[in-house]
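=== Per-residue structure ===
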Amino acid sequence: MNQPFNRGKLFTGLLSAMTLATLMISNDVSAALGQLTSQKQVGVREGQVVVAGTKGQYTGKMIVRSTKAIAWAVLTDYDNYEKFLPDVEESRVIENNGNNKVFEQIKVIQAAIFTRKSPIRIAVSETYPNKISFKMTSGEIQSLQGSWTIQPLSVASEDQPIQLLITHQVTVDPGNKSWRGIFYGIYEDSLEDTLQAIKTEINRRSSMMK
């Protein structure tokens, strides 16, 4: 004999599942911010772009309100980086093998006493829609590698903007000991500007959905 359909139990079950998912996301976010000082954690939650680290080991974090698709589209828009990243003069994909790509760009390095254009090639491995890993394959510095991750702060929606935590981790080594200190100072300033530019571009594209 068929049992009667119980809408109340179904609703309670769905609500419990959503509550559990929200708690899990909240715990994940707390863990993701745990490596930051309490002051920097507050900064991220208040909408600031925050960069932590020193001497070539950096982590940047920011919260944006967008869909994962838009955030992903901005981070992977390698052919148009020069249109919204402040230190990129040219950028284009030169190899495209699905989730694995190689792009090259001309970065403009600016300091108080000089301006230098630096070519670089970067290989990326994409895991849609959560993570992009990258590694330099050629350039004037010794090494550069890291990742971008996109993490929802609420139950994910395909087409509705939600709060997303974007984390950028990078390890960079200029190689030349004579100018390491100068390089790191320039890179740290450039990194914060890059993160802010990406946040601005995500916000711009998200506003076009309204």
In short: The beta strands are 50-54, 57-66, 88-97, 100-110, 115-127, 131-139, 143-152, 162-173. The two ends are 50 Å apart (CA to CA). The chain is about 35% helix and 40% strand.
